[in-house]
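Hey team,

Sharing the Alpha-protein kinase 2 run so nobody has to redo it. Sequence (201 residues) first:
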Amino acid sequence: SVCPQECCVQNAAREYAKLYAAEAETLEGFGEVPEIIPIFLIHRPANNIPYATVEEELVGEFVKYSVRDGKEVNFLRRDSEAGQKCCTFQHWVYEKTSGNLLVTDLQGVGMKLTDVGIATLAKGYKGFKGNCSFSFIEQFRALHQCNEYCEMLGLKSLRPPHQKQRKAAATKSKNLPNSSAVKKMVPKKGREHRDFISSEH
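Structure output:
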């Protein structure tokens, strides 16, 4: 049944959010921490639908802060404090569980979140059934961009190490005597190529 599973997922995610808050609140300058509101299961044996969920009503603009799939890029994730802190929460859970679990579908009003999901890498991670595909974890790893709150918590970047090597190679090339001449050429070539394309159409 959907209702008990929904409660189980949200309340498990809520426990992670409490641990995240406890760690983040000790950091100077972190400020308010997102909270996943509790969801309660009510059993109504006499009713056609024997189970219902009850939670606090959130009043205000309801926003989705986290990636559900690669196509959904929400600017409020990047531009709002709540959005950034939600992304940091995802990164924090990912790191704490060694990449085995991700809290997904972070959405709500301001810092109060509800209707969240959980994706696990393996079925039954810590005896827990997630309700989202593990592909969400891969997407998160590919799309997450660390922000100042990730840095405050000392979370490790999820960017593959070969990008860092490329940066190192670029700094070496600065020492070459004619690297500046090469650099000047590149944008020019790029521009000619673009003109060529536009004249084709």
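The CA atoms of residues 10 and 116 lie 6 Å apart.

Ping me if you want the raw files.
A.
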